[in-house]
């Protein structure tokens, strides 16, 4: 047998012996069998949801099953039933529900000078101010809106454009000030509202 052939055979024998020895070592030490496999962290769906929830801002929007609401001291709760943009962005219609949290009747008005204290604005700078309501009037302009003891009542308002920009916004804020008999002025504010868009005005003089 030639010397080159002998060296090749000898090398194959040595390599085979090393492989057999290594495999025996792995069997004897199980943790080595997994050490060579890189671990890839797997995020569960719960973890991902929690991370997304922490990253998302609090958004109040009019949507089925979830109405924006605000507690006014221990007196009453206001819910925003609907927030509609009308007439191509020239009007806003607001519908509210009031829940009396006391055992006494509550009497509500809009605050004095409602064009200054009842308004909406969008993220493009359009501003809408109070125009009128069939349900609730400003203090000094008529009878109060009655919210019965431990009961509910509703009111709708129309706001009209007072500052108009080139573009119509997608996110709105709403501020309303009320006068409550015996309790003074109370303010209700909603932010990041997503409006509904309609053509007709659900209010008439």
Explain what the structure shows.
There is one protein chain. By secondary structure, the chain is an alpha+beta fold. It folds into two domains: 1-35; 69-197, ApaG domain (Immunoglobulin-like), CATH 2.60.40. The protein is 23% helix and 37% strand. Strands 1, 2, 3, 4, 5, 6, 7, 8, 9, 10 and 11 form an eleven-stranded mixed β-sheet that branches. A hairpin with a 3-residue loop joins strand 9 (172-180) and strand 10. The longest helix has 26 residues, at 3-28. It starts with a helix and ends in an 8-residue tail after the last strand. Residues 29-64 and 200-205 have low confidence and may be disordered.
- The unreliable regions are 29-64, 200-205
Q: Could you state the CATH homologous superfamily of the largest domain?
A: ApaG domain
What percent of residues adopt helix (DSSP H or I)? 10-25%
Figure out the total of helices. 4
Task: Report on the biggest sheet.
Answer: 11 strands, mixed
CATH architecture of the largest domain: Sandwich
Kindly state the mean pLDDT as a whole number? 77
Number of strands: 11
- What order do the SSEs take from the amino end to the carboxyl end, as H and E? HHHEEEEHEEEEEEE
Q: Would you state the CATH class of the largest domain? A: Mainly Beta
Shape: elongated
Portion of residues in beta strands equals: 35-45%
- Report the oligomer: single chain
Whole-number total of structural domains: 2
């Amino acid at each position: 047998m030639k010397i080159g052939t002998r060296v090749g055979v000898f090398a194959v024998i040595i390599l085979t012996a090393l492989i057999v020895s290594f495999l025996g070592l792995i069997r004897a030490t199980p943790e080595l069998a997994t050490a060579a496999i890189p671990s890839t962290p797997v995020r569960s769906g719960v973890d991902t949801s929690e991370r997304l929830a922490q990253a998302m801002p609090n958004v109040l929007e009019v949507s089925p099953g979830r109405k924006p609401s605000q507690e006014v001291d221990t007196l009453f709760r206001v819910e925003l039933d609907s927030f509609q943009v009308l007439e191509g962005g020239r009007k806003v219609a607001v519908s509210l529900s009031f829940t009396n949290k006391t055992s006494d009747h509550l009497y509500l008005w809009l605050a004095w000078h409602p064009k200054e204290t009842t308004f909406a604005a969008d993220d493009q700078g359009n501003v809408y101010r109070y125009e009128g309501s069939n349900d609730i009037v400003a203090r000094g302009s008529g009878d109060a809106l009655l919210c019965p003891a431990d009961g509910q009542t509703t009111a709708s308002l129309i706001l009209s454009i007072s500052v108009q920009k080139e573009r119509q916004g997608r996110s709105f804020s709403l501020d309303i000030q009320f006068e409550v008999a015996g309790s003074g002025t109370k303010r209700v504010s909603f932010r990041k509202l997503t409006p509904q868009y309609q053509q007709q005005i659900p209010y008439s003089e």
